[in-house]
């Protein structure tokens, strides 16, 4: 699988902003990607050295909408999140440096 298809987008939340100073970055990744593929994709795309990767599948939450026709209930999509920690001697990712 190609690196740009594994890393879908960065996940920017309050908790992920707090990890930027410690070289901990959060990404939304493809559901079928494993940790080794994620490590290789991050190293290839950003030119950094990865120390560890933690992954979690985030379950979508329920959404309710009231319409003229009645109440409709649906769910948001599930997605896979990867928390990537870089090695101390590695450079930081330039995209996240502009945010902090």
Give your account of this protein's structure.
This protein is α+β, with helices and mostly antiparallel strands. It is built from four helices and six strands. It has helices at 3-6, 14-19, 35-46, 94-97, and strands at residues 7-10, 24-29, 50-58, 62-67, 70-75, 79-86. The strands form two sheets. Strands 1-2-6-3 form a four-stranded antiparallel beta sheet. It has a two-stranded antiparallel sheet with strand order 4-5. The radius of gyration is 16 Å and the shape is elongated.
Quick take:
This protein has helices at 3-6, 14-19, 35-46, 94-97; strands at 7-10, 24-29, 50-58, 62-67, 70-75, 79-86.
Note the main attributes of this structure.
four-stranded antiparallel beta sheet; 100 residues
Question: Mind summarizing the main beta sheet?
Answer: 4 strands, antiparallel
The tally of strands reads 6
Strand order of the largest sheet: 1-2-6-3
**What structural class results from the helix and strand content?**
alpha+beta
**Percent of residues in β-strands:** 35-45%
Radius of gyration: 16 Å
Element order: H for helix, E for strand: HEHEHEEEEH
> Helical percent range?
25-40%
Distance between the termini: 31 Å
Q: Tell me, what's the shape?
A: elongated
Low-confidence parts: none
Estimate the mean pLDDT confidence.
Answer: 93
